[in-house]
Fold FixH protein.
Amino acid sequence: MNIITLLWAKFNWGTGIFLFYSAFVIFMLSLVFMSMQQDIQLVTENYYAKGVDFQTQINEQSNVAALKEKPTIKQLENGNVEITFPDSDSKIEGEIAFFRPSDKDLDFTIPIQLQENKNQLIKQKIEQGLWKVKLSWTEKDKKFFQETVLVASN
């Protein structure tokens, strides 16, 4: 008798159950190990507070929808980003947040500082790829919020 026939003779339903559960435990432990190695980046650290204020953001977006002309965002040929607001006599204050969904380390926020012609030129070099530009501003004691997708190319 060779070794294979000896092992096969010892194999019964109890051995099969033991092998199945052993393989299952090894599989589950390997899944737990691999999931612990994943890098998880939250969109924001205080996501609960942001979720509570979501109705405020919806109201600010509806204020933008009511505008005749909306702010425009475009990338110029030299790589700079130009944000143009519609003509208005009132002062505009707020901030511009550049959000990169694939890498939170590239996110940055700058204050709105418009020139005389109601535009702002962002000279900071942005990486090529998908960006979400979030404009949040106040004009005549009314708050506005606009989120625009910008695909940057260098």
Remarks:
- The chain has a mean pLDDT of 86.
